[in-house]
Amino acid sequence: MAQNPPSLRPDLAPKPTLPTDARPGQPRIGMVSLGCPKALVDSERILTRLRAEGYAISPDYAGAEAVIVNTCGFLDSAKAESLEAIGEALDANGRVIVTGCLGAEPEYITGAHPKVLAVTGPQQYEQVLDAVHAAVPPSPDPFVDLLPATGVSLTPRHYSYLKISEGCNHTCKFCIIPDMRGKLSSRPHAAILREAERLVDAGVRELLVISQDTSAYGTDVKGRDAKHPIIPLARDLGELGAWVRMHYVYPYPFVKDLIPLMAEGLVLPYLDVPFQHAHPDTLKRMARPAAAEKTLDRIREWRDICPDITLRSTFIVGYPGETEAEFQTLLDWLDEAQLDRVGCFQYENVDGARSNALPDHVAPELKQERWERFMEKSQAISEAKLAAKVGTRIEVIVDSVDEEGATCRTKSDAPEIDGNLFIDEGFEGLTPGMIVEVDVDEAGEYDLWGQVAAQS
Fold this sequence. Notes:
Layout: E1 28-33, H1 37-52, E2 56-58, E3 66-71, H2 76-92, E4 96-100, H3 106-112, E5 118-119, H4 125-135, E6 159-163, E7 165-166, H5 177-181, E8 185-186, H6 189-201, E9 206-210, H7 230-238, E10 243-246, H8 259-263, E11 270-272, H9 280-286, H10 292-305, E12 310-317, H11 324-337, E13 341-346, H12 364-387, E14 393-402, E15 405-410, E16 421-423, E17 435-443, E18 448-452
Parallel strand pairs: 1-2, 1-3, 3-4, 4-5, 6-9, 9-10, 11-12, 12-13, 16-18
Antiparallel strand pairs: 7-8, 14-15, 14-17, 15-16, 17-18
C-alpha cells in the first residue's frame, strides 16, 4: 500500500490495466500508454476497435506481434520518456507503431527511431488501425471474439474516465496542446450520456469527467440549448447514481452554477481547477486570465455554496521572468486560498511553445528550490486539512485489497494524483468498487487511515 508522493508530473494517468484473455491463434497487439488520462481514453478507443476486429491484447512485448506506443508530448521530459518507451519496445519486439501527441511531430520520432513501422498523430484512430492491419492482418472469429458493451477499459472496473471533448481554444504560451489536438470539439450530450449509462450498467461506480477545458464543453456548438452546456450535462450524469468527478474546470464565472449540484449530492464536491499561478504579471506572460484576486473571490463563493467542496489545482513554478516577489505572491495566495489538493510542475521549454522565446528564464537550481518551497507550503496545508478529518466518518470507494489491507479513496481524492485512505484492520470483507463508511483515526501529509464504520 504505497502513499502518494508529490510529483513533478501531476498530469499522469494511472498505469493501464491490460486485459490478457486470448484464444489460440488470435493475433496479439501490445500497448504502451503514456501521459494523461485523456491519452488513456484514446488508448482504450484504439484497443476497443482492435478487439472488435479480432485482435487480442498482449500484456508484454514478447507475446505481441506488434506494439502500439501512445506517446505524450506535453513537456520535453515527457517527449524524452516517449522516445525511451519507443526504443524499449523496438528492442524487445521490433515492430512498433507510434501514435499520440508526439505523433504530431513524425520527423522527431523517425529521426530518433527510423525503424518504427508507422507514426500517427493524436486521435487518428483510423490511421492506427491501418498500420496495425498492415503489420498484423486481422483474423476475427465472430462466434468467439465478443466485445463487452463498454469496450476495452484500461482502468479498474469500478471507475472510468469519460472524455467529453477534444482540443482547446486557449492560447497559453507554455502549451502546445491546441497545435497537437486542435480547437475545442465537443461530443454530443446524448452520446456522452449513452456511454456513461453503459459504464454504470457494467458496474462502474465512479465517472471521472475529463477534457482539455471541461468548463467550455459545448460552447463550440451552434444553436445549443444551454448557454453553458456543462451544467445540464453534469446534472444528467449525476442522475445515473455513480460518483461524478469533474477535472480540468477553468474558473469562469459561471462555474458557480456547478457548485449547487455538488451541494445537492448529484456531483462529487470536488473541483479540479488549473490555476497555474497567482501573480497577475506571471499570468499575463502565460497568456492566462490575470485576475487572481477575482479567483479568491470565486473560491470563497464556491465554499459558501458547498462548504465541503475539495479544491484541487496544478501550478507552474520557475516560469520565464518569474521574480522572487512573484513567487512569494503565489505562496501568499496559497496561504489565503487553502487549496485541499495541489500539484506542481517546474517550467520546461517545449518545442513550438511561445514561452521559449520569453526573456529571463529561471535557472534550474532556482526552479528546484522554488518547487521545494512550494511543496513545503502545500504539504503543510494538506497535513492540517487532513488532521481535521480525524474523528470524522466519511464515505470511501475501495480501489484495491491485498494481504496488508485495503487502499481506498475519499470523495476528495482522484486516482493516482491525490491521496488515499488505508484500512489495515477489519478489511477482509472488502472488494474493489465497494463504497463504505469509514471512521478516520489517523492522518499524514497526504493520506488518511481508518476503520470500517460499525453498522448501527
